[in-house]
UniProtKB/TrEMBL annotation:
It comes from the Bacteria. This is Phenylacetic acid degradation bifunctional protein PaaZ. It comes from Roseomonas haemaphysalidis. It holds the Pfam family Aldedh. Residues 13-445 form the Aldehyde dehydrogenase domain. The keyword Oxidoreductase applies. The lineage of its organism: Bacteria, Pseudomonadati, Pseudomonadota, Alphaproteobacteria, Acetobacterales.
Length: 678
């Protein structure tokens, strides 16, 4: 029986409108679900997100929101089999669904982990160091990032109903923004099932996630400058949404990820007997058939040296002929149908367009052998390889995106031409280059980088662990310039920043230090009371400082240190040679000696709450220290964050080493772990 999809609005499931449309199975055409959003009050949904979801999320720290993502990921992992089962009807094989379902859950896990490690346990991010703005240091600048107060509207494509929703949801929620998510209708029943699992978990606060099964109605009319639209799909729809009067009038942030004629280039050095040639053929065949080619990142243009065209064509045809096309529920099937009859109609029409510029050299758009299903009732289509003999004169092969198992071979005569052909795509999500020659790779990268969001450079050394041309990864930017939409998603924290406003703060060091909870030069320090190493993490305050007495560094110290460590570099040991060096007045102390003596000056040695020093950052030696000079240290608590375990916290100390003239000779951050108060 067909499922009636409901929307989740203002904290309740809302039944479909009376005009619900049928959503047929890609495999056999039976109606799987029906959906309509008619009757939803979109203005009220936007209000609910802003008034209820936003404040609840913003009341949490980044770490608390990261924890929500992790709990969601665990919750979905335990229930994912139901999603796999539903996904067969979208045409996806189990392998295809792994990208969608496990890939989506993996993205939640990745953002949970990065949020915990890379973001503060705060409700804002301090972006960079204080900027000195005045001669006396009483007026400084700092940048903070804080969550927008609006709603993130996510409009997703049909091809990845789970991953598409989660890869947008994770950075938005981590940033602290509530989401209204709208899946593509043709596969909405999978997204619907996943959202039902999320709602049932009760993990997210009310208003953090709302869901529209059906069209977005007049939602965009209600958007303001505090809102964000993130869209994946066709260039036509993207243009419509970007040009929506409210979106352009209110400068609503708009992220688009859309059509992309991604290229794979076989290097001029990669002959048929080379490992790169085999890797290339394998990757192109995989990209054509995974998800039946319905991936925004799939290879559409196969750019090869003219001399290798026949060899590539034969090798690809042999691989494509081995595909078993049919009912994705059958484990032996390697490629399922397209997502809908409509999609198959579109792809056939696009192939007919391409065929005006190119010849079909593998497959027949009208005929396909199918196992375990009816080739006409399901949206089955053969993989189709085309060959365009004159890609310089041709236009369609660079503009028509056949969103199915379709790619076109384009020969090139030299590398400049290969680059030019790839650029004719006018901006793509990804291109790959298969070469073992560093000069070839560099030429391709310099020509392709400005036109692409990601470049996949595969060769024999990386082949075993390469993540695939078509795989967007949470750590790397996903998006591309020009035709690809000009947006960026994921990319670690870069994706979170879309939902945050960067604001420059100007004020006194004391004020900015108090606001940002980070000590900066000129802010108050506290030197009274016990040594800071005697204070627990909870007792330490920003600005707590040790000012040490000074210590003279003698020539004997330098020689002792040199022989003890084995570092007898001439600048420390040979007066004449040191003098000849333009940076030194003569023999100087080792930088590491200065660090070691500095530690000797500032430590409080007895066992106590300070547990370990786990590193230094930002280290700079700014002035040489000569024998007879003296040094002293100021060590100040600069920032604190909770540790990975409840027993300790992490403390960042600002260390500055001065000489007898109060000039800074070294500066760095010391990173320690300190025990929490009992
Ligand atoms: P669409 O642009 O038609 O749909 C994408 C999303 O936008 C869907 O959720 C759709 O909802 C929604 N949408 C459509 N019209 C509007 C509107 N007026 N206001 C608000 N939302 C709207 O793309 P398709 O998914 O139909 O795919 C068409 C083509 O787009 C493909 O053949 C392919 O060329 C390209 N595409 C590119 C992708 C990429 O990642 N680069 C991914 C998928 C497709 P609904 O389903 O309810 O219409």
């Amino acid at each position: 029986m067909a499922l009636t999809l409901q929307s989740f609005a203002e904290g309740h499931w809302v039944p479909a409108g009376a005009d619900a449309v049928d959503i047929p199975s890609a495999v056999d055409g039976r109606v799987v679900a029906t959906a309509s959003s008619t009757g939803l009050d979109f203005a009220a949904m936007a209000r609910f997100a802003r008034m209820v979801g936003g404040p609840a999320l913003r009341a949490m720290t980044f770490h608390q929101r990261a924890e929500l993502l992790k709990r969601l990921a665990v919750h979905l992992t335990e229930r994912k089999e139901a999603l796999y089962e539903l996904s067969f009807d979208t045409g996806a094989t189990r392998r295809d669904s792994w990208i969608d379902i496990d890939g989506g859950i993996g993205t939640l896990f990745a953002y949970a982990s990065r949020g915990r490690k890379e973001l503060p346990s705060e409700r804002f991010i301090l972006d960079g160091a204080f900027e000195p703005l005045s001669r006396q240091g009483s007026f400084v600048g700092a940048h903070i990032l804080s969550p927008l107060h609006g709603v993130a509207v996510h409009v997703n494509a049909f091809n990845f109903p789970c991953w598409g929703l989660l890869e947008k949801l994770a950075p938005a929620l981590l940033a602290g923004m509530p989401v209204i998510s709208k899946p593509a209708t043709s596969t909405a029943y999978v997204a619907h099932a996943m959202v039902a699992m999320i709602v049932e978990s009760g993990i997210l606060p009310p208003g953090a996630l709302q869901f529209v099964a059906g069209s977005t109605g007049d939602l965009l009319d209600h958007l303001t400058g505090q809102d964000v639209v993130s869209f994946t799909g066709s260039a036509a729809t993207s243009g419509k949404l970007r040009d929506h009067p409210a979106v352009s009038r209110n400068a609503v942030r708009f992220i688009a990820e859309r059509d992309s004629l991604n290229a794979a280039i076989l290097g001029s050095d990669a002959a048929p007997e080379s490992p790169e040639f085999d890797l290339f053929v394998k990757e192109v065949a995989r990209e054509m058939t995974a998800k039946a080619g319905q991936k925004c990142t799939a290879i559409r243009r196969v750019i090869v040296p003219r001399a290798q065209v026949q060899a590539v064509r034969d090798a690809l045809a042999a691989r494509l002929a081995r595909q078993r096309i049919g009912n994705p529920r059958d484990e032996a099937v390697t490629m399922g149908p397209l997502s809908s009859q409509g999609q198959r109609r579109d792809v056939r029409a696009q192939v007919a367009e391409l065929a005006r510029d190119a010849e079909i050299v593998f497959g027949d758009p009208a005929r396909v052998e199918v196992s375990g299903a009816n080739a006409e009732r399901g949206a089955f289509l053969s993989p189709l390889l085309l060959h365009c003999a004159d890609p310089i004169r041709a236009e369609r092969v660079h503009h028509v995106e056949a969103f199915g198992p379709v790619a076109t071979l384009l020969p090139y005569d030299d590398l400049d031409q290969a680059v030019m052909l790839a650029q004719r795509g006018e901006g793509s999500l990804v291109a790959s280059a298969f070469s073992y020659d560093p000069a070839v790779t560099e030429q391709l990268v310099m020509g392709l980088a400005p036109f692409h969001g990601r470049l996949y450079l595969l060769d024999r050394d990386s082949a075993k662990e390469g993540t695939g041309h078509g795989s967007p990864l949470p750590a790397l930017v996903h998006g591309g310039p020009g035709r690809a939409g000009g947006g960026e998603e994921m990319g670690g924290m870069r994706g979170v920043h879309h939902y945050l406003q960067r604001t420059a703060l100007q004020g006194s060091p004391a004020k900015l230090s108090a606001l940002t909870r980070q000590w900066g030069a000129g802010a108050p320090t506290r030197t009274d009371g016990p040594h800071p190493f005697r204070r627990s993490f909870d007792e330490l305050a920003i600005g707590d400082t040790v000012e040490t007495p000074s210590r003279v560094i003698t020539l004997g110290d330098i020689e002792h240190f040199a022989h003890f460590t084995g570092d007898t570099f001439y600048a420390h040991m040979d007066e004449e040679a040191a003098k000849a060096n333009p940076f030194f007045p003569g023999r100087v102390a080792h930088g590491y000696l200065i660090l070691s003596f500095a530690a000797g000056l500032f430590v409080d040695p007895a066992p106590g709450p300070l547990l370990a020093n786990y590193g230094l950052e930002r280290l700079r030696f700014l002035k040489p220290v000569s024998p007879g000079d003296s040094i002293r240290v100021r060590l100040t608590v600069k920032a604190k964050r909770l540790g990975r375990l409840p027993e300790y916290g992490e403390v960042r100390w600002d260390a500055e080493v001065f000489n007898q003239h109060d000039e800074t000779v070294a500066q760095y951050d010391v990173l320690t772990m300190s025990a929490r108060a009992p």
